[in-house]
Amino acid sequence: MTHKIITVGNSSAVTLPPDLLKLIHLRAGEKVTIEHDAKRGGLVILPVRRSKVDAELLEWTDTIIEKYRPALEALAKK
Predict the structure, then answer these.
(1) Which helix (H) or strand (E) holds 23?
(2) CA 12 from chain center: how many Å?
(3) How far apart are CA 67 and CA 61, in angstroms?
(4) Among candidates 46, 27, 44, 28, which has minimal Cα distance to 36?
(5) Which domain holds residue 10?
(6) DSSP sequence for 11-64
(7) What is the pTM of this model?
């Protein structure tokens, strides 16, 4: 699959066909990371997946850690 690098404002971009986006479960507007692959001399595009941990669980975890901090620290030293 060959694509042309295009100019978008002051940046350059490569368009991704809909069938490829569907294959990798991405949609327009989602965030990706772009990394250089020195071995292959190219780029790797990876989706940025949101954490599936919900805010309520994080708050509960913080509460438990604070409540039992002395016991947890003692266990960590063993």
Answers:
(1) helix 18-23
(2) 22
(3) 10
(4) 44
(5) 6-47
(6) EEE----HHHHHHTT--TT--EEEEEETTTTEEEEEE-PPP---HHHHHHHHHH
(7) 0.53
How far apart are the C-alpha atoms of 70 and 21, rounded to whole Å? 49
Write the pLDDT tens digit of every residue in 69-78.
999 999 999 8
Dist CA 55 CA 39 (whole Å): 39
Helix 55-67, helix 69-77: angle, nearest 10: 70
Q: Into how many domains does the chain fold?
A: 1
State the CATH number of the domain containing residue 39: 2.10.260
Q: How far apart are CA 8 and CA 1, in angstroms?
A: 21
Q: Among residues of the chain, what percentage have pLDDT more than 70?
A: 97
56 in any annotated domain: no
